[in-house]
Specification:
Trefoil (Acidic Fibroblast Growth Factor, subunit A), 6-stranded antiparallel beta sheet
């Protein structure tokens, strides 16, 4: 796979074959400040970069034995119940991992003459993103870490869409036991991407919380399927982290609906997905154990422009035109679409997009009421959201007139709305 070359692949439901590695629990103790061994790997995560083979090598070789074992399990190199005694030493383990990774992510023809030590990790992540039909702009622009996280959200959305209403309601109770989402019945009717947006607004999918929600989802679905989860458990003074690996993980995601298995001669999609998810979760564990603040990880600089382009050409409000409203402590509001939070790039003046995982200054809007029942939306820098006479959406106006007026068409509890502009059309977050 050459940089910049994209092979069109249409494999809806691909992630039915994936999801092999979801962290089961995070339990944090305040009794000690001693860092867990995995924390030393945090410096090699490089959340803003696109990973090369060297990135992968440095990160894996910095992992403790239990975590390195989980990587080998995700590639099927050892049995699911293997203990660290199955490791063969750092050098040999790394050689096996590199070879298995190259074999899983390249076809037979590409494999001939391929040096496994130089096969770029980011290419594998991009390949999975193409199969799962993430947006071209996400694939072409985002960091490796950001794409991995987007893939995990896609897993959740596909799982959700395969559940019936009763199971959705049951899962919501487990994800949201404290009732931060007020109307579980209404949320259970939404599609997978809309639910992701709703969970982001209630902090269930923001920052590190995404992985707790995914853990709950995987374990709940496993229970419905009657699958016993074998865990390779890693413990330290400050946390307990369990990683789910291998074919059992793939079986859990079978509920999403298997489309096809890997065709002979093609790369092994299940194994690649298992490996990529395991790597991502180990990165997250390392960052959290090292005490890296979420604000330094899940920032606008990590979530490069991808899906979530805002248009104003829809006459009927459906899923893409639905935003969940979150009230912030500074009296501003934030709007979350299924693609992410509505954001004024650079605080205003550079366009508007809805693809941010967390709320910063760019995702905060002052809601100003007008006497005619409309509202103005003003950025923290004092610029107004605007739809001009061509339909272009921007946040670059210093004063408010008709083009800067909107109507918030809300649901019964006022937490979900569609944003209608002066042209009679709705703001819409595009998937690409």
């Amino acid at each position: 796979m050459q940089p910049g070359v994209r092979t069109p692949i249409n494999r809806r439901g691909f992630f039915a074959l994936a999801g092999a590695t979801i962290p089961f629990t995070y339990s944090w103790s305040s009794e000690t400040k001693k860092l867990a061994p995995i924390a030393k790997a945090a410096e090699f995560v490089k959340v803003k970069e696109r990973w090369t083979a060297d990135h992968m090598f440095k990160f894996i070789t910095s992992l403790p034995d239990e975590e390195r074992l989980s990587v080998k399990k995700s590639l099927g190199l050892v049995k699911e119940n293997a203990t660290p005694e199955a490791l063969k030493g750092l050098s040999l383990d790394m050689r096996e991992i590199q070879h298995a990774f190259t074999s899983a992510t390249t076809n037979i023809v590409e494999r001939l003459g391929k040096d496994s030590a130089t096969h770029p990790y980011h290419h594998a992540v991009v390949w999975l993103a193409e199969i799962s039909e993430l947006s071209e702009s996400t694939i072409n622009v985002d960091s490796t870490f950001a794409i991995e996280r987007a893939l995990m959200k896609r897993v959740f959305a596909e799982l959700w869409d395969k559940l019936d209403g009763k199971k959705r309601a049951e899962l919501l109770k487990k994800i949201d036991p404290n009732g931060k989402i007020k109307d579980h019945t209404a949320v259970a009717l939404l599609g997978g991407r809309s639910v992701v947006a709703a969970l982001m607004v209630t902090s269930h999918f923001a920052g590190f919380a995404l992985y707790t929600a995914m853990s709950t989802t995987i374990c709940t679905v496993a229970g419905w399927l009657g699958i016993t989860l074998p865990f390779a458990v890693y413990t330290s003074a400050s946390s307990i982290v369990a990683f789910l690996c291998g074919p059992v993980g793939w079986a859990i995601l079978a509920v999403a609906g298997v489309v096809t298995l890997a065709i002979a001669g093609r790369a092994e999609r299940k194994k690649t997905a298992a490996f990529v998810f395991q790597m991502h979760l180990l990165k997250v564990a390392a960052l959290k154990e090292a005490g890296i603040p979420e604000s330094e990880i899940y920032t606008p600089s990590v979530n490069f422009p991808g899906g979530g382009r805002i248009e104003s050409n829809r006459k009927i409000a459906k899923e893409w035109e639905t935003f969940t409203i979150e009230n912030n402590k500074d009296s501003t509001v934030s709007f979350s679409a299924y693609t992410g939070y509505l954001c004024a790039k650079d605080g205003g003046g550079r366009g508007v997009i809805a693809n941010r995982d967390v709320i910063g200054d760019w995702e905060r809007w002052e809601l100003l009421d007008n006497k005619d029942g409309t509202v103005n939306l003003r950025t923290k820098t004092g610029l107004y959201l605007c739809v001009d006479d061509t339909g272009r959406v921007s946040a670059d106006r210093k004063t408010a007139a008709d083009w800067e007026k909107f109507r918030l068409v809300k649901d019964l509890d006022g937490k979900v709305c569609s944003i209608k502009c002066w042209r009679g059309t709705y703001l819409s977050a595009q998937p690409e």
